[in-house]
Amino acid sequence: MARGVSKFLEFTSAGSQFVFGGLADPAVMSNVFPGGLVFAFTALPTIIFVSSFFTVLYYLGILQFVVRLMARAMIYLMRTSGAETLSAAANVFMGQTEAPIIVKPYVARMTQSELLAMMVGGMATIAGGVMAVYIAMGADPVAILTTSVMAAPCGLYLSKLMLPELEEPATRGEVKVAVERTHVNVIDAAAAGASDGLALALNVAAMLIAFLAFIAFFDYILGSINPNLSLSRVFSWVFAP
């Protein structure tokens, strides 16, 4: 499965190399600098492709079917409600802002414990597009896929430890996926998904620029106090087990 995911993500290069040319080809760029991976032209386009692909799957109802199967398994094993479990399962493939759309009709009737579970599930997982970026950068696909799937039930488990269910959920034992058809056809869905992916890719790039600059800034300040000090070293002391 991991090899299949890696092969699937390689198709992104067909589009990115057409648009960016050699800048999106690590083999060409390796002649310029070691590694040859230009993040903006190699990794970020995978977000656009994966977002477009998932939007098509959502339009066709395939994504909802897979999410429903995962949710049924978790409901049977964990005895959680349908709404919170659907949201947790959707977070494996979708982002934190897109996953709650599946349970949008039930959000107003969610208990406090269900709302916390939905938010924890979003924080515990990563969007499919970001997952693709990690794999494109050379991360182990098996590790990425395994941890992403495991994060869904683990997020539910930890949220219930923090705030146990004391009320009766409206969707106890139910698995109903709300499907909102916002696209005219498959082409429209693919185009809309690409636009959403572009916004996410630009957001990722902006965050990386800002936060890496902040890290360099704090490293400079700490280094002026003591040459052996850096932000990563301070955090290693603070978060050491």
Could you walk me through the main structural features you see in this protein, from its secondary elements to its overall organization?
The chain has 241 residues and is mainly alpha-helical. The chain has a domain at 64-127 and 139-178. The protein contains twelve helices and no strands. The protein has helices at residues 2-10, 12-20, 26-29, 39-42, 44-60, 62-78, 82-90, 112-124, 128-136, 141-162, 186-225, 231-238. Helix 5 runs antiparallel to helix 9 (128-136), helix 7 (82-90) runs parallel beside helix 8 (112-124) and helix 7 packs antiparallel against helix 10 (141-162). The longest helix is centred in the C-terminal third of the chain and has 40 residues, at 186-225. The model has no long low-confidence stretch (mean pLDDT 85).
Question: What are the salient characteristics of this protein?
Answer:
12 helices, 67% helix, mainly alpha, 241 residues
Distance, first to last CA: 34 Å
Structural class determined from secondary elements: mainly alpha
Query: Which stretches are poorly predicted, pLDDT < 50 over at least 5 residues?
Result: none
Mean pLDDT: 85
Topology at a glance:
Elements: H1 2-10, H2 12-20, H3 26-29, H4 39-42, H5 44-60, H6 62-78, H7 82-90, H8 112-124, H9 128-136, H10 141-162, H11 186-225, H12 231-238
Helix pairs in contact: 5-9, 5-11, 6-7, 7-8, 7-10, 8-10
Offer a concise description of the structure:
With 241 residues, the protein is mainly alpha-helical.
